[in-house]
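Hello again, I could really use a second opinion on something today. I've dropped the whole record in just underneath, so have a look.
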Amino acid sequence: MMHLVLSDLAKETGGRVVSGDPSLIVTSFSTDTRKIKPGDFFIALKGQNFDGNRFVLEAFAKGAVGAVVSLVPEGLSIPSDKCCLMVRDTENALGDIAALWRRKKNPLVIDVMGSSGKTTTKEMIAHVTSSRYHIIATQANYNNTIGVPLTLFGIDERTQLVVAEIGMNAPGEMFRLGHMTDPDLLVVTNIGRAHIGMFDSQEKLIRAKAEVLPVIRDECVLVTNADCPRTAIFLRYTRYKHHHITFGIEEKADVQAENIRLVKGYCYEFDLLIHAGKIGRIQIPLFGRYNVYNALATLAALYAMGVDLADVGDWFLDFTPVKMRSETFTLEGIKIIADCYNANPDSVTQALWSLKDLESGGRTFVVLGDMLELGQESEGIHREIGSLFADLNVEVLVTYGDQSRVLGEEAASYGQKIRHAQTHEEAACILAEQLRKGDTLLIKGSRLMKLEIVMQKLVESLSSDILVNQESKE
């Protein structure tokens, strides 16, 4: 159970106790009045479309013992038996309180960041370490300045390891997240072009990611991708001479993969080398050569922790990816790769190149949705992705979204057959009409494109056709 004194929270957040007993022991927090439990301390977050300050009385009525607020709405009277901590910014206060709790309990903390692959890498680290340590990890991809504190609040007396995913789409966020988590290891999967539209240039994007570096301790170990060309730029912002461990495939690295080959139709197998010495042969049950990098990042983190890698060969065999991330299943002989949780230029490129590795023997279909948050570079980047189809053997490319229409136009100029869908249902119909046993389908797009709907509609259509065919035979 959490044990924090209200007066200490005031000191940590720069706030002041305006009501109640400063010596109150706070044992739990909530940011959502719908989930308030008796004894919680309510943190009144404020966003573009909501103001938690307006729900303080509701929180008290449901059993909250106090609240962190940035203002007391006019006419609102705080009950005499309730505590109120006034701060300038409740979201910042949330992070400050989480940082205080993390320091007080002081488990080992691994932060995972990067433009792509961070959720899968975080899940891989959690999967492998859960049998060795009592761990907590970021749920789903709650990797922002609200989600990360809620993860840290889960630390208790048993917690030995925290695996925290940290992400950003604006300057200042990585500094805040680094302050909260105070990592012992910082894993950087890669530095790509995700969210570049939120910045004026690639250099400013890298600088914003590097804001985490000045706030981490000099004892923190950095784990970075030797094959990523932007890693060197990122590392220019380091303030200390951190111990540094690299992973990679192409370039020489401390933790390296060699002799990569496809097995079981879509899985990857590779030799693991530590400082050029072979440790073992690894198999990962995931589509996409990029997942070899995620596995290497995981193994580099474990190596940095001093974990014995002698029996590493079967560690990933029962790993299951997060839903809609490299998720592969077969329906009536059609292999469907649902990698539609998110998309950026680098992850889409890697997914498309990974299609070349597949040994399906059938035709390949691809559905691509818009890549978002690319700003003025959006059209050029979508055309860049379209040009990749000059070297791909794809039966039909189905595009969905305004920017993907541009991508399709570019792909068509190289002879690629294109169908542009106006709706999810239309995309599913196009596919259902043409897919047959032995074919492979890749679906990928940014989260807001909701391409899982295409997958759902397609599965419903294929399942319906199967049922009709069975009934007609009867």
Summary: The chain has a mean pLDDT of 91. The radius of gyration is 25 Å.
